[in-house]
Automatic annotation (TrEMBL):
The family this protein is said to belong to: Belongs to the binding-protein-dependent transport system permease family.
Chief subcellular location: membrane
Membrane topology: Multi-pass membrane protein
One protein family per Pfam: BPD_transp_1
GO cellular component: plasma membrane
PROSITE patterns: ABC_TM1 (PS50928)
Keyword set, alphabetical order: Membrane, Transmembrane, Transmembrane helix, Transport
Every ABC transmembrane type-1 domain range: 100-311
Protein name: Peptide ABC transporter permease
InterPro entries: MetI-like, MetI-like_sf
Subcellular location: Cell membrane; Membrane
TM segment ranges: 9-29, 100-124, 136-160, 188-209, 246-272, 292-318
């Protein structure tokens, strides 16, 4: 319990630091976002209206930076991430509500499936060296070394086209009304197949290689030898003794991967014009939409922290040594 409380305190401090940095970075960037918004819309407004925009965006020049900082914390506690410059006057929280499900479903499912398949194959490859599974390592290593956006471009070239089953862009067919009906869900699944396949192929190889190497190391440990000497079934020794201990380093990597699910696989979403958080971040950077960038960075940071906290809890369950004091 003490270990868990220490880790929780560390993550709370890290979250405070992330929120603080997230507040100051946009205010250190040169330029005036309100003036940029007015110029982009080619409008002329009064001084009072301009001052109202500064107050609306939390950039009131008549208020001290410390006051703005505490106001920003108050906004966060109310769930207010500000107003988007690009999609003015749409709140950032509404934009994230629209894009987050796309990224979480696409990247989340592929990350979990890739980890499960890769770890399972890595266990078999490390335990049964020289088998056909072990022979897949050169192929998977080669595929994982190719950048995933390059795999996406290859997939678009070879598999997508006017008469192809695989769409080349978007999250669903034009004209389809989003909703929980068979037409929309089928269209969304069809549009997600190529991006999901790209992410799955590029990520699975690293899980296989990492788990295989850990299994080779753990297989020579004394407790595995003792388990064999006791006459325990081969499957039980492989899963309950070797794989359980070899899995520990992969838990941290999996937690980080889960944390970055929210950020999406940026380049894959750009290649396929997929309406997730990564593609939205690309649009925000291109249009200098500071509140939207700020909201996305904050959500990604907090997601990584929560994922790492869950990894620490998993360590407590998997490794008894972390539960011992001193």
């Amino acid at each position: 319990m003490r270990y868990l409380l220490q880790r929780l305190g560390f993550y709370l401090f890290t979250a405070w630091a992330a929120v603080t940095i997230n507040f100051f970075i946009p205010r250190l960037i040169p330029g005036d976002p309100v003036q940029s918004l007015i110029a982009r819309n080619q409008g002329m407004i009064s001084a009072e209206a301009m001052q109202s925009l500064y107050v609306l965006f939390g950039l009131d020049k008549n208020e001290s930076l410390i006051s703005q900082y505490f106001d920003y914390w108050g906004q966060l506690f109310r769930g207010d991430l500000g107003i988007s410059f690009t999609f003015f006057p749409t709140p950032v929280s509404d934009l994230l509500t629209d894009s987050l499900p796309w990224t979480i479903i696409l990247v989340g499912i592929t990350t979990v499936v890739g980890f499960a398949i890769g770890t399972g194959l890595g266990v078999v490859a490390g335990w049964k060296r020289g088998s056909w599974v072990d022979g897949l390592l050169p192929v998977t290593t080669f595929l994982s070394s190719i950048p995933y956006f390059w795999l996406g471009l290859i997939a678009l070239t070879l598999l997508a086209g006017p008469d192809s089953f695989f769409p080349s862009s978007g999250g669903y067919d034009p004209g389809t009304i989003p909703g929980w009906d068979g037409s929309f869900i089928g269209s969304a699944i069809q549009h997600s197949l190529l991006p999901a396949l790209t992410i799955l192929i590029s990520s699975m190889g690293s899980w296989i290689l990492g788990m295989r190497n850990m299994m080779v190391t753990v297989a020579s440990e004394d407790y595995v030898t003792v388990a064999h000497a006791k006459g325990l079934p081969e499957r039980r020794v492989m899963v309950g003794y070797a794989a359980r201990n070899a899995l520990l380093p992969s838990v941290s990597g999996f937690a980080l991967a889960l944390g970055f699910i929210v950020g999406g696989t940026l380049l894959v979403e750009i290649v396929f014009s997929y309406p997730g958080v990564g593609y939205q971040l690309f649009q925000a950077v291109g249009s200098q939409d500071y509140p939207l960038m700020q909201g996305i960075f904050l959500i990604i940071t907090l997601s990584v922290l929560v994922a790492n906290l869950l990894a620490d809890v998993a360590y407590l369950a998997l490794d008894p040594r972390t539960r011992k004091e001193g």
